[in-house]
User: What shape does this take?
Amino acid sequence: MSEHASRKEDHLDLCATDQVAFQGKSTLFEQVQFLHEALPELAVSDIDLRTTLLGKPLRAPLVIAAMTGGMGRAERVNRDLAEVAEARGLGFGFGSMRPLLQEGVQLGYKVRDVAPTALVLGNIGIVQAREASTQALMDMVGIAGCDALCVHLNPAMELIQPEGDQDFRGGLETLARLHEELSVPIVAKETGCGLSRRTAQQIAAIGIGTVDVSGAGGTSWVGVETLRARARTRTLGELFWDWGIPTAASVAQLEGLGLDVIATGGVKHGLDAARALALGARAAGMARPFLMAWNEGGRTRALQTADQIVEELRLACLLTGSRTPAALGQVPLVLGPELLRWLPRVSPIRARLLDA
Assistant: This one.
């Protein structure tokens, strides 16, 4: 087994447990409360969850988020979950496509036969993107049939990973190049540590229109790599295990920048997805709930999980009087003090607070 394949097997095993949760930091979604509307004047059938993301229609604003890539179990996971995305009109994201880019490994990255119309998101690290030619990345995207390419920014994870990268210079220049030269949209994506407003402003300034915050509070990818690490980086990883911006805080910080925000990172259910949409996200992404479901019962159980999450989101919309996901972005909110501390002084969200 190659080094990359072994690493991905480790990731799947560890992410199926609670060992890699953040230890003292939450997503802060629990600090978002809605005002209940006892007279919503809506029927469940009135709720229209349809939206578009990266130019493609979704039947609900949900993405089965990036988890893994490559051969073996990763191939089975990706194909089954892509099929779920197709069946329910959701988005689907690959994990790192580095094996396809650098080693020509195509197994695990071909899902269009089971997901011909789904939104499919590719995924490559910023360091690998920096070193690769635009043509090589276009070939990679073409082989997998991706509608967009997520470029993941993961310095904290890489610094702890035993075989990780150490040089992150040229990242913004790389994103600008790919935005200009690739024929598919670029999504700037974190990997469990969130995006700050400053970083998002830099990304927006070069013309990229979509980001994935992948915030703190769910799976700690620093924690994942800490459990795999050698002694020196393990000590560092234990110190930085909880590093990052909570997911709800990261989404809220980006409100008003004109970006389409995908909220991933510890989104547990449809109510969390509704909270993310209320804070300004365009869609919510979930990885671990689908991986756990797949581990329990394969594609059938993952389909059931998708249906459950969609139903939870639909109920949250009805109980707030929101006919559409976009309407959630207008409802009054009650935010807890910890989340309020993360809000910029000037934020559109502040005008919607119940005590404003």
Summary: The two ends are 58 Å apart (CA to CA). Residues 3-352 form a domain with the TIM Barrel fold (CATH 3.20.20.70). The CA atoms of residues 102 and 128 lie 9 Å apart. The chain has one domain: 3-352.
